[in-house]
Write a structure and sequence with these properties.
Elements lengths: L9 H5 L3 H24 L11 H26 L4 H6 L5 H20 L2 E3 L6 E3 L3 H4 L1 H15 L13 E3 L6 E3 L12 E6 L3 H11 L6 H11 L11 E6 L4 E8 L5 E7 L4 H13 L16
Antiparallel strand pairs: 1-2, 3-4, 5-8, 6-7, 7-8
Helix pairs in contact: 2-3, 2-7, 7-10, 8-10
Protein name: RNA polymerase subunit sigma-70
Organism: Streptomyces sp. R35
């Protein structure tokens, strides 16, 4: 079987330095750690947990913390920290630290040289990079939304703001270009498969405490008929206003395709933005990895 040389994520990944990718993987690991720790806080289901069950969960938490430490070491090495500087925080010597974490650093470096391997059937290519480094744009979007829910300041890019990026022209390293939080637009954009558009709008209306019925769908369908997402003035606007939020949904057909471009404004709260982002991701119409590619767990 002939396998494609590239995937839709390769160009996106090349825009990030290895330091930035390592930092994203660390952020993803820390995110997973907080989720595991949060489960142990809750006592509601203790009666249904078998003997030793909470010890099992705590052991998994320790393993997750160890993985987070490994990712932190990889990041620190990518940013130029010496083994002496790293070892000082671990209470060991530099040689011992290098021996302990060297194999993972070798795997990390090797994944950039050979980014995929075939599975045991020889039919599927499995990415060797952790998921956050393999698909950094998606990782940034999701981690930014997660962080936005937990910060007290209006910062929609708490994770992606300071990542070090490369410029395609000359390879110079630059900081990620992030809008000023005070002036940044709240617009959210994406592409939805046309057959899924009604379900998308029904759920979106429900998030805003509204019904989306047959009459609403007929109105949207009629408004979409003459739209073209390549012509700014040819988009159709459909308001979803309630006592909760004033949302404006702009829609346009993609010429020659079966997808609809969506641009939504008015979702100012972090929890609503997270729900809408998840909804857009579920109904997304965008290039996907070839069927011969399967993602590895983070």
């Amino acid at each position: 079987m002939t396998h494609p040389e590239t995937t839709p994520y390769d160009d996106d990944r090349r825009a990030y330095t290895r330091e930035a990718l390592a930092r994203l993987v660390l952020s993803q690991a820390a995110y997973g750690l907080t989720g595991s720790a949060g489960e142990l806080v809750i006592t509601r289901h203790d009666a249904f947990c078998g003997p030793g069950g909470r010890v099992s969960e705590a052991a998994e938490l320790v393993a997750s913390a160890e993985w987070t430490l490994v990712r932190a070491v990889v990041y620190e090495r990518e940013r130029g920290s010496s083994w002496e500087e790293i070892a000082g925080y671990l209470g060991v010597g530099a040689d011992e630290a290098a021996e302990r974490f060297g194999p993972e650093l070798a795997r990390w470096a090797g994944a950039f040289e050979v980014p995929y391997r075939l599975d045991e059937t020889g039919r599927k290519r499995i990415p060797q990079l952790p998921t956050a480094a393999y698909d950094p744009d998606t990782a940034c979007r999701r981690l930014d939304l997660w962080a936005h829910l937990r910060t007290t300041i209006r910062d929609r890019h708490a994770v992606s703001a300071d990542l070090r990026m490369t410029t395609p022209e000359d390879g110079d390293v630059t900081a990620a270009e992030v809008p000023d939080p005070e002036t940044e637009s709240d617009e959210m954009t994406g592409w939805i498969w046309r057959p899924h558009l009604r379900s998308f709008l029904e759920l979106l209306a429900g998030y805003n405490g509204m019904w989306f019925d047959e009459t609403d769908w007929e109105t949207v369908s009629l408004g979409l008929e003459t739209t073209d997402d390549e012509t700014p003035d040819a988009w159709y606007s459909y308001p979803l206003n309630s006592a909760l939020h004033s949302l404006n949904v702009r829609l346009a057909n993609s010429p020659g395709g079966n997808e609809v471009s969506v641009a939504l404004t008015g979702a100012t709260s972090a929890d609503l933005r997270l729900r809408i982002d998840t909804l857009m991701d579920a109904f997304a119409a965008r290039p996907q990895p070839p069927s011969t590619v399967s993602r590895s767990p983070a």
